[in-house]
Design goal:
elongated; 0% strand; 4 helices; Fumarate Reductase Cytochrome B subunit
């Protein structure tokens, strides 16, 4: 890891951030929509797309974490200590949920007996046995963890917008591709 800190996030970090953001928001919305649909081919297709999106979120999260461990983030902008602690806690919670939500979803689909087959190309191994009672528990955990991630995403977004429109401190501009300003 380099000892100097940049003023903004790298294009790779920015791309991973926004790609994950879009995937998470779309997957969350799809999850909310599909759970109340009657059993149909359309519902099955949406469930598969949702599982595939979760798989991609998991893979990109691993890539993002690895990239983050190898590249220093920009220096922190001046902010009250409580805001810095809140940002660190929110980011830590998001990273934890980037992994927990798809892994619990994968466990849930394993427990239901429906395999995870990303993009219809290869079947991933089940990591829990088929068990209806376990599936119901995992379904609830997936739901609650997803809502927790939704809350943290809203907090993160709200803080970014507050920094941009109220504080006008350049925080949001550091997460845009080069050429964009705060």
């Amino acid at each position: 890891m380099s000892s100097t800190r940049p003023d903004r996030y790298s294009p790779t970090a920015v791309a991973l951030h926004w790609l994950l953001a879009v995937l998470i928001v779309v997957s969350f919305g799809m999850g909310l929509y599909m759970v109340d649909l009657p059993f149909s081919p359309a519902r099955l297709k949406l469930f598969n797309w949702h599982k595939w999106a979760g798989f991609v979120v998991l893979a990109l999260s691993a890539l993002r974490l690895l990239y983050r461990l190898m590249h220093r983030p920009p220096h922190e902008l001046p902010a009250p200590a409580w805001q810095q602690r809140a940002a660190q806690a929110t980011h830590g919670g998001l990273y934890l949920l980037f992994f927990a939500v798809p892994l619990v979803g994968w466990a849930y689909t394993s427990a239901t007996g429906f395999p995870l087959v990303p993009f219809g190309l290869w079947q991933l191994p089940d990591f829990v046995p088929v068990d209806k009672e376990l599936a119901e528990t995992l379904k609830l955990w997936h739901k609650y963890l997803s809502y927790a991630m939704g809350v943290l995403v809203l907090m993160h977004t709200g803080a970014a917008l507050k920094h941009h429109f109220v504080d006008r401190d350049g925080t949001l501009g550091r997460m845009w591709l080069r050429g964009r300003t705060a």
